[in-house]
Design goal:
With about 575 residues, the protein is α+β, with helices and mostly antiparallel strands. Helix content is about 35%, strand content about 20%.
């Protein structure tokens, strides 16, 4: 990023007749991770975090990031004349309102925003007679001369042995819901929905095994699927069957709606961009604006997907154990945070089916571990020593499952309070792991249970307790989650979630214990649900204050460690097996 780029953008804004421009970190599919061609926020500000927004005005500019990225934002902005502000819709609206005058306009790219995401900003600016103006062409795209090409990988069939349900059966299942809602079609807004519904995968997006795509499902179970021309191979067409028409121009999706005489279409405004809604309204269609039913359906894994997830976690657990067993020696030999990321990756590479990380590994030693979503770089990487605490949050993609696990490790002598903090986090983790709850319970109703032990001593953590996880799809999948925010989404059998309470002492250390679990029916209490562990990695006994654990909590940990030892030992080297035996000894 340079002053010159900022000046070029301002000249383009003048040419397009707006006084400021909204720059999100987003692509047209609202993906969590975006291709390099869509990293516009990074190109204009230098900020590479996973969440952020910028407003570039003719005279002033601001970058908005949340608390996870304040330090990173400061570092990456450098001496650019861009203010750093809190990522909050009200803060953004006020900043824009303070900079612009009545009669002026804030431009935005309608392909990169959703209507609900702009409601507060639109209302705030309208009260001040400031227009929120959709632009036909993104101003950054017109000046980004060396912009990377859009991804062009092939979409591939995802076999039935992993999905457990044929695409035709999925389409008919969702089509039944369309009939119940009396709609003619369902808009499929993003690659994740298409990947699940059509049983396809790809490699167009970092960490997310999908091909860039969107589509339409009709009430009779037939469909139109949009893919880039390069993504369509002969094997894919055979896999998709006759009921699915593949098109390579987005406009053909809307033409298909016209040809099929669609009058009423179901579209989720939370995950469909503004431009799409504009096009659908231009066709004079009635819109049913509700949550996409595919989102709910793919959240509940079938028996084949759950079996696959178990198998993937066994292999992944073995890789983590090989890494943890080698960690002390590597630290003695000068290991730093960045080298630890590479070491762990090499252990996963040895496992069958490994397709890459499911997100960028968080590798934080000492004070860096206290940064909740720390991203290690050559500049920030700390050398470890045989003292203090190391936090590693990582995950992998396998064809049979997606993993996400965090372990906090004592490398030697630790700060005095760390053992109490770790044990209180562990108590919260066990409270969720052992919880039984009635059907109809939402994640927000159980979040406080994970925080109780920390709250008892006036402590808390500023992130959610758990997020949904896909099946060889996104490591952060909705609609299910455990957190303070309201979801109104009951937890249902087959849903996979993380269980990851934590505690972070700024400048000293971070603690997080994360396992993936899935929801299942309680065998003992009809009408109740509970969780079952998927992750198989020891929890560091050296950090536990045994006196703080109840006998039931000790029993849970001993049973968990016994299962880890029994399942993982046959999958690791003799040296790691010896480490594993010690790491899983009963308390």
């Amino acid at each position: 990023m340079s002053q010159e780029q900022l000046q070029l953008l301002r000249e383009e804004l003048r040419r397009q007749g707006v006084e400021a421009f909204l720059v999100p970190r987003a692509d047209e599919y609202q993906n969590e991770y975006v291709p390099a061609a869509d990293e516009r926020l990074a190109w204009i500000t230098g900020f590479t975090g996973s969440a952020g927004m910028a407003v570039i005005g003719l005279d002033k500019a601001a970058l908005f990031v949340d608390g996870r990225y304040t330090l990173q934002g400061q570092q990456q902005l450098g001496d650019l004349p861009i203010a750093l502000e809190d990522l909050n819709n009200q803060v953004i609206a006020k900043w824009v309102g303070d900079q612009l005058s009545a009669g002026q306009s804030l431009g935005f790219d309608p392909r990169l925003h959703t209507e609900p995401g702009l409601v507060l900003l639109r209302e705030y600016l309208a009260e001040r007679d400031i227009a929120l103006k959709p632009l036909e062409q993104n101003p950054i795209d017109t000046i980004w001369r060396d912009r990377p090409a859009s991804p062009s990988g092939q979409a591939c069939p995802h076999p039935y042995v992993f999905t457990g349900e044929h695409s035709n059966d999925k389409r008919q299942r969702i089509a039944t819901l369309l009939a119940e809602k009396r709609v003619d079609a369902l808009w499929l807004p993003n690659p994740e929905s298409c990947a699940w519904l059509f049983n396809i995968r790809g490699d167009d997006i970092p960490h997310l095994p999908v091909a860039l795509s969107s589509g339409v499902l009709f009430r009779d179970g037939s469909a139109i699927l949009y893919l880039a021309e390069q993504a369509v191979g002969e094997g894919l067409l055979e896999h998709l069957e006759r009921e699915v028409m593949v098109v390579t121009e987005k406009g053909q999706l809307f033409e298909g709606l016209r040809r099929r005489h669609v009058n009423r279409i179901w579209v989720d405004p939370a995950i469909s961009n503004c431009w799409t809604l504009q096009q659908l309204r231009a066709l004079d269609l009635q819109l049913l604006l509700e949550r996409d039913p595919v989102t709910q359906a793919k959240a509940c894994k079938n028996a084949v997907e759950l079996a696959g997830s178990r198998a993937a976690h066994e292999r992944d657990g073995a890789a983590l154990c090989e890494f943890l067993a080698e960690l002390p020696t590597a630290v003695e030999n000068g290991l730093d945070e960045l080298a630890a990321v590479k070491l762990l990756y090499s252990k996963r590479e040895e496992r069958e089916g490994f397709r890459g990380n499911s997100f960028e590994t968080i590798s934080g030693y000492g004070p860096n571990g206290a940064i909740v979503h720390y991203r290690v770089s050559p500049e920030s990487s700390l050398k470890m020593s045989a003292e203090g605490i190391y936090l590693c949050d990582s995950g992998a993609q396998y064809p049979d499952g997606t993993t996400d696990v965090t372990r906090t490790v004592a490398l030697g002598e630790i700060p005095a309070l760390a053992r109490e903090h770790f044990t209180r986090v562990l108590k919260g983790h066990i409270a969720i792991a052992t919880l039984r709850f009635p059907q109809g319970t939402c994640g927000e109703q159980i979040d406080a249970i994970a925080r109780r032990s920390l709250w008892d001593v006036g402590l808390d953590y500023a992130h959610g307790t758990g997020h949904g996880v896909g099946s060889f799809l996104s490591v952060h999948e909705g609609p299910q989650r455990i957190g303070k925010a309201i979801t109104n989404t009951p937890l249902q059998p087959g849903m996979i979630l993380s269980n990851e309470p934590g505690f972070y002492l700024t400048g000293q250390y971070g603690i997080r214990i994360e396992n993936l679990v899935f929801v299942k029916e309680s065998a003992d209490y009809p009408g109740f649900l509970q969780f079952e562990e998927l992750t198989l990695v020891p929890i560091d006994r050296e950090l536990i204050d045994i006196a703080l654990l109840s006998s039931q909590e000790r029993d849970w940990l001993n049973r968990y460690h016994q299962r880890v030892r029994e399942v993982v030992t046959p999958l690791v080297s003799e040296k790691t097996a010896s480490w594993l035996q010690a790491a899983t000894e009963a308390l």
